[in-house]
Design goal:
With 224 residues, this protein is of the alpha+beta class. The chain folds into two domains: 2-15 and 95-181, no CATH class; 20-79, SH3 type barrels (Roll), CATH 2.30.30.100. Helices cover 63% and strands 16% of the residues. It is built from four helices and six strands; from the N terminus they run αββββββααα. It has a six-stranded antiparallel beta sheet, with no helix packed on it. Strand 3 (43-52) and strand 4 form a beta hairpin. It starts with a helix and ends with a helix.
């Protein structure tokens, strides 16, 4: 039972860990989430809101802006940036705003039920090899631990699926918005071209009218 619990704990911790990368100051992007450690020992985590000459401006979770001089930065780390189809960063706050938590809840319940049955079976097998005094304790504690670990693990998996779905939704929304902007741009271009054509037609009509006027004036003079 000891090894089963350890295995479940390792799975949970592994699922909960996010990959962290190291960046140079010139590599970070606007809206990217980073953790900055200064040579003074101070650290700040948040979104990059501006890149100024020789400095990064970071807004932390409390909404406070921090300016970190690049020559005083010891380390910059953070998760890989999530980009949309245009290569723009999707901020973590936007991803969180689009997450609904449905999969996390569903996976947690399903994983808990599945783990409950599995841990009960494994615990019962282990308890048979023990004395009567330890049998019930191992059975109940093993079943409870396995069910809880399974629920947590599957909850993490569901939360990750919620995150991926949120990212896809944001990408679709941005693509639609960009398509609408492109369409509006094309409409404006066509309207501009149409306006210019109308101006040219009017100028041509004015020129033709002026030519006719001059021709008529010449004819009148010749008659005299």
């Amino acid at each position: 039972m000891k090894y089963v619990s350890l295995f479940a704990a390792v799975l949970y911790l592994t699922a909960g860990c996010s990959r962290q990368l190291a960046f140079r100051a010139d590599e970070v992007l606007i809206d990217q989430t980073v953790s900055v450690r200064l040579t003074s020992g101070q650290s700040v985590t948040g979104e990059v809101v501006a890149k100024e000459p020789g400095a990064l401006v970071i807004k932390d979770r409390d909404g406070q802006s921090w300016e970190a001089q690049t020559n005083a930065i010891e380390k910059i780390s953070g998760p890989p940036s999530v980009l949309d189809a245009a290569g723009a960063v999707i901020p973590e706050r936007e991803i969180q705003a689009h997450k609904n938590g449905k999969n996390a809840l569903l996976f947690s319940i399903s994983g808990g039920i599945l783990s409950l049955g599995t841990s009960f079976f494994l615990s019962s097998m282990v308890s048979r090899a023990l004395g009567d005094e330890d049998r019930d304790a191992v059975l109940y504690s093993g079943t409870a631990t396995g069910a809880a670990a399974g629920a947590l693990l599957f909850s993490r998996l569901g939360a990750n699926k919620d995150r991926q779905q949120a990212i896809q939704q944001i990408r679709r929304e941005r693509a639609v918005a960009q398509g609408q902007r492109d369409l509006n741009g094309e409409v404006k271009k066509r309207q501009h071209v149409q306006t210019e054509l109308e101006k040219l037609r009017q100028e041509r009509a004015d020129q033709d009218a002026e030519i006719k006027r001059l021709q008529q004036k010449i004819q009148d003079k010749q008659k005299k």
